[in-house]
């Protein structure tokens, strides 16, 4: 399969002021597009055209690390754009609220724990909310472009929410101030989409 760069469902300036248009445009059209190009090339090199992306991630440790880096780079950014929406949205979904309450106490506490993980992650990577097969909701971070679907990642699960922690995601506006970038992220989260992913999993919490 030849993957394509997903269109954003909003304009490049629509996430202002939390995420500036220049950063978003470069991030999408340069960074994301480059991961995609490399990933499509590697799919050809390793004759993986007949496999779905999740299937590729499940055996990614058997291939050179470039497949992991670029496949993850393509997938993670595609999800990232979808969990953002101009102005953010409220966490209204009852099922997701129940899950978050069960595993993190309150939505505010969830945000606090996610923020801490994102803030304390050393170097480039991603912060995640995932749902494990046993239903458990878990916050953690991964290095580079790794994600929770990869056999090279110690704890697996379905990604529900992600935050790009690479400096390319925030440096133009926030410079070294990752904390302000993370705090701004909470005003962009598309909870409706996170809830959709959670409900699609259909795993009992
Ligand atoms: Mn990025």
Written account of the structure:
By secondary structure, the protein is mainly α. The protein has a single domain (about 20-205), classed as 3-Layer(bab) Sandwich (minor pseudopilin epsh fold). It has eight helices and three strands, in the order H-H-H-H-H-E-E-E-H-H-H. The chain has a three-stranded antiparallel β-sheet, sandwiched between helices. Bound molecules: manganese (II) ion. The site of manganese (II) ion (MN) has 7 residues, from helix 1.
Number of domains: 1
* Arithmetic mean pLDDT: 97
- In the CATH hierarchy, what is the architecture at level 2? 3-Layer(bab) Sandwich
CATH class: Alpha Beta
Give a short account of the largest sheet: 3 strands, antiparallel
Shape: globular
Strand content: 5-15%
Number of strands: 3
First-to-last CA distance:
34 Å
CATH superfamily: Iron/manganese superoxide dismutase, C-terminal domain
**Low-confidence parts lasting 5 or more residues at pLDDT below 50?**
none
Q: Tell me the CATH topology.
A: minor pseudopilin epsh fold
Secondary structure blueprint with pairings:
Elements: H1 21-45, H2 53-58, H3 65-82, H4 94-104, H5 107-120, E1 125-131, E2 137-143, E3 158-164, H6 171-174, H7 178-185, H8 191-201
Antiparallel strand pairs: 1-2, 1-3
Helix pairs in contact: 1-3, 4-5
Brief write-up:
This protein has about 200 residues and is mainly α. It has helices spanning about 20-45, 55-60, 65-80, 95-105, 105-120, 170-175, 180-185, 190-200, and strands spanning about 125-130, 135-145, 160-165.
């Amino acid at each position: 399969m030849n993957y394509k760069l997903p269109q954003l469902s909003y304009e490049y300036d629509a996430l202002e002021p939390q995420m500036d248009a220049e950063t978003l445009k470069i991030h999408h059209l340069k960074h994301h597009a480059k991961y995609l190009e490399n990933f499509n090339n590697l799919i050809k090199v390793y004759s993986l055209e007949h496999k779905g992306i999740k299937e590729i991630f499940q055996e990614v440790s058997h291939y050179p690390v470039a497949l992991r880096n670029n496949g993850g780079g393509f997938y993670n950014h595609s999800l990232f754009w979808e969990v953002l929406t101009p102005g953010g949205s409220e966490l209204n979904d009852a099922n997701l609220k129940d899950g978050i309450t069960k595993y993190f106490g309150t939505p505010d506490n969830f945000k606090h724990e996610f923020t801490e993980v994102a803030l304390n992650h050393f170097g480039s990577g991603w912060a995640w909310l995932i749902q494990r097969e046993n239903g458990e909701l878990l916050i953690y971070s991964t290095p580079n472009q790794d994600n929770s679907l990869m056999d090279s990642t110690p704890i697996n699960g379905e990604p529900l929410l992600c935050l790009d922690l690479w400096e390319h995601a925030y440096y133009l506006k926030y410079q070294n101030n990752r904390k302000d970038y993370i705090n701004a992220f909470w005003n962009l989260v598309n909870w409706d989409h996170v809830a959709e992913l959670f409900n699609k999993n259909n795993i009992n919490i």
